[in-house]
Amino acid sequence: MTLLxxxxxxxxxxxxxxxxxxxxxxxxVLGSITNPLAYARDPLAQEESRPQQELEPDSNPDRNxxxxxxxxxxxxxxxxxxxxxxxxxxxxxxxxxxxxxSAFIWVNNGHPEAIGTFWTGRDSRTGKxxxxxxxxxxxxxxxAANFDGQLIWNPRTNGLQFRAVDGAEVPADKPWQRLAQxxxxxxxxxxxxxxxxxESSRRTLRLLPQPIFRYESRSDSxxxxxxxxxxxxxxxxxxxxxxxxxxxxVDGRLRWEYxxxxxxxxxxxxxxxxxxVWKVENTSELSRQHRFGRDPDRDSIYYSVxxx
Length: 308
Fold this sequence. Notes:
Layout: H1 16-29, H2 61-75, E1 77-82, E2 86-88, E3 90-91, E4 97-98, E5 101-108, E6 111-122, E7 129-137, E8 143-147, E9 150-153, E10 163-164, H3 175-186, E11 189-194, E12 202-204, E13 206-207, E14 213-217, E15 223-231, E16 241-250, E17 253-262, E18 268-272, E19 275-280, H4 284-287, E20 302-307
Antiparallel strand pairs: 1-2, 1-8, 3-5, 4-5, 5-6, 6-7, 7-20, 8-9, 10-17, 11-12, 11-18, 13-15, 14-15, 15-16, 16-17, 18-19
Helix pairs in contact: 1-2
C-alpha cells in the first residue's frame, strides 16, 4: 500500500469551526442521531468470500453534518512515528465505526499504528456539552500526535504486548481463510469490565462479530491481522476494549498472536477461555486531570481528553 503523505494536512482552524461545533451539539440535543451503527472495513474484501460492508450515505443531513465534523477533527491531527526516522502516518478517511461518535485508524504501509475516537458528550458536573478525543497506540514505536500544530498525545512505549494464541492452528494460505480463523479465534477471548454506574457493576462485554479493520502488511514479512471491538452497550457500539489478532513471523514461521487494548478508564480484564491473560486498573481519577495540550499524562498509550 502506497502512503500519500501530506494529502490530509489541513490549515489552521478559523472561527467558523467553533460555529460548526455549536451546530453539531444542537443536532445531538434535538436527537438527530437515533440509530447508532458500527461498520466493518476490510481492505482485502476483494479476496474474501463475502462482500465488504461499506459505509452507506446517511439520509439525514443533520447526521451527515455531525459525521463530517468528526472527520474534520481527525483530519486536524498529524500523527508521526518516532522511530529511527520520523514517518508521518496516513489517516484512513473512512471511519471504522460510528455510534454517537466516530473511530478512525492511522496506518503506516497498511499496518494500523493508532486508533482515535471522537464524540460529543455532556459534562456531568457542569451540564455543558463537550467534544472528546481519545487515542490508543497500536504501535511498537513512540508517536507524536499534533492537533493544528500543538502536541496533544505522545506515547513513548509499546502500545500492544503480543502473545501467542495457545492451541491455534497455523495461519492459512488464503486471506479469506485467515479471516475465518481470526473470527473463530476472537470468539475464544472475552472481556469483563467494572462499571460503577450500573447496579450490577461487573459486566461481560459484547464482542462485535466482524472486525472493524482488516489489514495485510505490504512489507517483506507477510503479515495479516484484524482489530475486533468489545462494547458494554446493547444498542450503541462505542468501543470499550480492543482485541488485535495478527499472523506474525517467529523464527521464520507464521503463528497467530493476540493483544488487548483498553478504550475506557474503568477496570478491564481479558480472558482466553477461562484463563485471565490481561488486566488494566481503573484510572478514572487521573483522566479527570487531563488538559488539552498541556497534560503530563499525555505519554500514556491510552489517552482521552476534552477538546477546547
